[in-house]
């Protein structure tokens, strides 16, 4: 097979000269500048082949520099765009940056309302696709994240969206992956569920670890270190974990680092052609899994070389611009701005950015420029106050132009993963995992299956909505419970009981959809079974039921946690209406981080 030999510039990865836990603030801002430039180059290079090879025969190295039939432009690096055009690989993060930049004092965590408001104000529906578009439409109906990604109302939860729109939260928390995951948790779960969450988390951790690569390693050793360290934050047994393990093992077993096509073809066989052999499903060319696998593949086979990494990602297939943008941004974050420029000697790069191409109602920082509204350098500068805030929030400090990071997490990484923490807190999941049973009952009579859901109470206690093991499609678990068609109004009691005691800090009620005639309650009351007796604990709801907002997630936070064997919600259903519910769960002790939504009890 013909092999293209790339004439690359040898470069030194930029280790933190002051040590991995003390970073120069000015140097890190330059790294962020390099991240944006690296993303732009890689994004628009990868777009040359987006969706052009989604099944065999795929592109190979021999196709680089050519214009195969069906392509409107040759497959080559895009370097001369001026200004750089926004695309969904950069513009969603740009919107998040704008929203975070308007918050005073700065912080790195966005609330559900802030995410919804930012999306509705700035997203252009014509430039978002699959799960992003579905989440946007749900927000327009009043739904807030993370309910915008629940499988019951977003069947596109397993697509690529979150893993191309949230990596920059890792860059906002350098060397602090636990804090990066906290900040990225809700943006990820705005559009992703199941294994798609974990693929996105992996990318966030890669970006966070960009400053932490040990000095003195070769390019191959450095990307191996990054992949192996990020893997520690992904739950074993899920599809994302399988992808990382499979691609890494295939790379290590391959004696020819230029034969990346071998691994790509095996990715296609395992995750697209014959996924059922492992109990999985292939969705289509824009799904999370095959593209996640290609992202890991191009990072490994690129061995830290910017040009080779982007080339492999561009030729890899499927939704190719996404993995190139992600890995181009990662390597730009490692190299810094001048390091990215050095990959293309003699090439002049624009620093101008046209966000108005795809996003609306954002500030124009270049009012005299009819084509661009911002500069990559300024985007990096606006990130720094958020970086500062994250360092301080995580236990570090800003001192004389230095980012003094808190101690690194070196063990028990999953304890610091917010979605894994929520799964561990879920009594509906943990009682079953420990060999116990969960029993669901309702005071309403059985009724017919309706468009709003089914009358089987099993569905409001099956744990699916808090199942973050990274599994694939489980359509049969997602349905909502409903009293529609039963004729019941007034108080309806939904009960979940456990065969073993559980610690109850919060009782969560997750509502289903609304129609013109019902789906909601006018009030909720919560009880916990303690010592065999149902009692009404002291506490507060995070919000009240709202007939104008379907799919509410309402927490009742106990003033004092209790040990109980059941929880129940008494919902008042208006005359002529009905109740919907997708989950009632008892949540245990939270991890040290909050999720940006939890309100303290009065």
Question: What does this protein structure show overall?
Answer:
The protein starts with 21 loop residues before the first strand and ends in a 15-residue tail after the last strand. The strands form four sheets. Strands 7, 9, 10, 11, 12, 13 and 15 form a seven-stranded antiparallel β-sheet that branches. The chain contains 17 helices and 15 strands. The chain folds into two domains: 22-415, ADP-ribosylation/Crystallin J1 (ADP-ribosylglycohydrolase fold), CATH 1.10.4080.10; 426-587, Sandwich (Jelly Rolls), CATH 2.60.120. It has helices at 25-46, 91-101, 112-122, 130-140, 168-171, 177-188, 195-208, 219-231, 239-253, 260-273, 288-302, 306-316, 320-335, 337-341, 376-393, 418-425, 427-433, and strands spanning 22-24, 84-85, 352-354, 374-375, 397-399, 402-404, 438-442, 481-482, 490-510, 523-530, 533-535, 539-541, 553-573, 580-581, 583-587. By secondary structure, the chain is of the alpha+beta class.
Can you tell me the residue ranges where pLDDT is under 50 for at least 5 consecutive residues? 1-18, 593-602
- Assign a percent range to the helix content: 25-40%
The span between the termini is: 70 Å
Shape: globular
The H-level CATH homologous superfamily of the largest domain, spelled out, is ADP-ribosylation/Crystallin J1
CATH topology term of the largest domain: ADP-ribosylglycohydrolase fold
Beta fraction: 5-15%
């Amino acid at each position: 097979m013909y092999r293209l030999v790339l004439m690359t510039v040898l470069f030194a990865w930029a280790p933190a000269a002051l040590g991995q836990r003390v970073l120069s603030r000015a140097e890190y801002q330059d790294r962020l500048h390099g991240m944006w430039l690296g993303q732009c180059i890689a994004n628009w290079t990868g777009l040359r082949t987006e969706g052009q090879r989604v099944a065999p025969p795929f592109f190979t190295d021999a196709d680089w520099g050519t214009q195969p039939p069906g392509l409107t432009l040759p497959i080559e690096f895009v370097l001369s765009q001026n200004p750089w055009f926004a695309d969904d690989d950069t513009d969603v993060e740009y919107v998040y940056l704008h929203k975070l930049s308007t918050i005073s004092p700065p912080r790195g965590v966005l609330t559900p309302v802030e995410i919804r408001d930012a999306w509705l104000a700035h997203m252009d529906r014509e430039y978002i696709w699959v799960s992003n578009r579905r989440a946007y439409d749900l927000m327009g109906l009043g739904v807030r994240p993370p309910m915008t990604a629940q499988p019951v109302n977003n069947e596109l939860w397993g697509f690529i969206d979150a893993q191309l729109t949230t990596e920059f939260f890792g860059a906002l928390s350098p060397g602090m992956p636990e804090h990066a995951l906290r900040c990225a948790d809700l943006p990820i779960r705005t559009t992703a569920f199941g294994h798609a969450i974990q693929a996105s988390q992996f990318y966030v951790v890669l970006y966070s670890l960009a400053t932490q690569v040990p000095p003195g390693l070769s390019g191959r050793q450095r990307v191996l270190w990054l992949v192996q360290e990020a893997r520690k934050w992904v739950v074993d047994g899920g599809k994302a974990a399988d992808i990382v393990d499979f691609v890494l093992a295939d790379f290590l077993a391959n004696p020819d680092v230029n034969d990346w096509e071998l691994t790509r073809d095996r990715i296609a066989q395992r995750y697209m052609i014959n996924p059922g052999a492992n109990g999985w499903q292939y969705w289509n060319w824009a799904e999370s899994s095959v593209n996640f696998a290609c992202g890991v593949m191009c990072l490994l086979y690129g061995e830290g070389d910017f040009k080779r990494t982007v080339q492999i990602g561009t030729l890899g297939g499927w939704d190719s611009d996404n993995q190139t943008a992600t890995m181009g941004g990662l390597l730009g974050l490692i190299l810094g701005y001048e390091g990215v420029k050095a990959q293309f000697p003699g090439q002049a790069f624009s620093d101008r950015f046209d966000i108005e191409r795809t996003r609306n109602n954002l500030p124009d920082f270049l009012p005299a420029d009819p084509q661009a509204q911002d500069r990559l350098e300024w985007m990096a500068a606006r990130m720094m106050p958020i970086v500062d805030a994250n360092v301080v929030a995580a236990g570090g400090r800003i001192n004389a132009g230095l980012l003094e990071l808190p101690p690194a997490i070196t063990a028990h990484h999953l304890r610091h993963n917010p979605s894994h923490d929520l799964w561990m807190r879920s009594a509906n999941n943990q009682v079953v995992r420990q060999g116990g049973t969960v029993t669901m009952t309702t005071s309403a009579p059985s009724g017919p299956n309706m468009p709003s859901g089914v009358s089987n109470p099993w569905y409001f206690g099956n744990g699916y909505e808090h199942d973050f093991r990274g599994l694939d499609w489980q359509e049969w678990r997602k349905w909502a419970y409903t009293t529609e068609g039963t004729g019941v109004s007034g108080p309806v009691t939904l009960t979940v009981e456990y065969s073993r005691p559980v610690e109850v800090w919060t009782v969560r009620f997750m509502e289903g959809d609304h129609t013109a005639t019902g789906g909601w309650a006018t009030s909720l009351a919560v009880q916990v079974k303690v010592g065999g007796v149902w009692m009404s604990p002291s506490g507060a709801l995070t919000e009240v039921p709202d007939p104008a907002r379907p799919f509410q997630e309402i927490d009742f936070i106990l003033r004092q946690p209790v040990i109980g064997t059941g929880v129940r919600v008494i919902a008042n259903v208006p005359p002529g209406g009905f109740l919907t519910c997708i989950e009632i769960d008892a949540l245990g002790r939270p991890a040290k981080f909050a999720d940006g939504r939890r309100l303290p009890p009065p």
